[in-house]
Amino acid sequence: MPMRVAVLGSGRGSNLEALLRHCEAGTVAARVTLVVSNKRSAGCLEIARKHDVPAVLALPKRKGESATEYDVRLLEVLQAEAPDLIVLAGYMRILSPAVVHAFEGRIINIHPSLLPAFAGASGAADAWAAGARIAGCTSHIVTAELDAGPMLLQAALAVRPNDNAEALARRILRLEHLVLPRTVQLWAEGAITIEGNKAHIAAPDSWLHHPEIEPVAGVLYSEGF
Ligand code: GRF
C-alpha cells in the first residue's frame, strides 16, 4: 500500500501536478488520495480531477465564519480521510493549532524562499525586493508558527542581474517542483527523522543529479545528514 497523501492548495496547483506526475511515474512511492482547496475556482482542483485523484473537494469559507470554525470543518474532512501525510502546496491559509496538533509532525509545506529568511505569503518576491543574491525554496514540517517548523530540503540558485520578481519566482518554482516530490519520497522511505527543531535525512541515494535540477543555472542542492 503506497503512502496516502492529502494535499491542500489555494491556487494554480503546479506543485500538486509535479507531485502527481512523480507518483504516476513511480519516482515517488505515494498516492494522492485527497485534494482540498479553500478556493472554488483554484487550478489545483482541476489538476486533481485531471489526474483522477479519488477525492477532490472545494471547501470555501462560509460568510461570517471564523478561521477556527473553518478549520473545524477542514479537520473533519482530513480526519475522515486519515492520510499518512498532509502536503501544503500553495495553501494560502494559516492552519489553526487544532489542525496542526491533530496531525503533529505529519504536515509539510513548500515555501519559495531559503527559510528562515523571507517567511510569509510572498517569499520569492520579498527575496527579490530585498536584493538577495542567492534565493531558493525550502520544504519544512508545519508547526503552529508560520513557516518556522523543522526544515527538510532546500535548493538554492543565484539571482541573475536580469531577473525581476516574476522571473525569479518562476525559476524558484522549478526547484519547488523537484524539492516537494523528493521530500515526499524521502518521507515514504522513512528517511526523515526529527530531533527537536532539526530534521535528519538518511537517504541511500540523492536527486542531486536529477535532470530537472541541472538546467537551473547556479543551483545549490544538498541532501542527507
Ligand atoms: C508556490 O510558490 C509555493 O511555494 C507557494 O505558493 C506557490 C504555489 O504555486 N506557497 P502552485 O499553486 O503550486 O503552482
Question: Could you explain how this protein is built, in words?
Answer:
The chain is of the alpha/beta class and 225 residues long. Helix content is 32%, strand content 24%. The chain has an 8-stranded mixed sheet. Strands 8-9 form a two-stranded antiparallel sheet. Helix 1 (14-25) runs parallel beside helix 6 and helix 5 crosses helix 6 (165-188). The radius of gyration is 17 Å and the shape is globular. Bound molecules: 5-O-phosphono-beta-D-ribofuranosylamine (GRF). 5-O-phosphono-beta-D-ribofuranosylamine binds next to helix 1, strand 5 and helix 6. 5-O-phosphono-beta-D-ribofuranosylamine (GRF) binds at residues 9, 11-15, 44, 89-90, 110-112, 173, 176.
Which features would summarize this protein structure in a list?
225 residues; alpha/beta; 8-stranded mixed sheet; two-stranded antiparallel sheet; 32% helix; binds 5-O-phosphono-beta-D-ribofuranosylamine
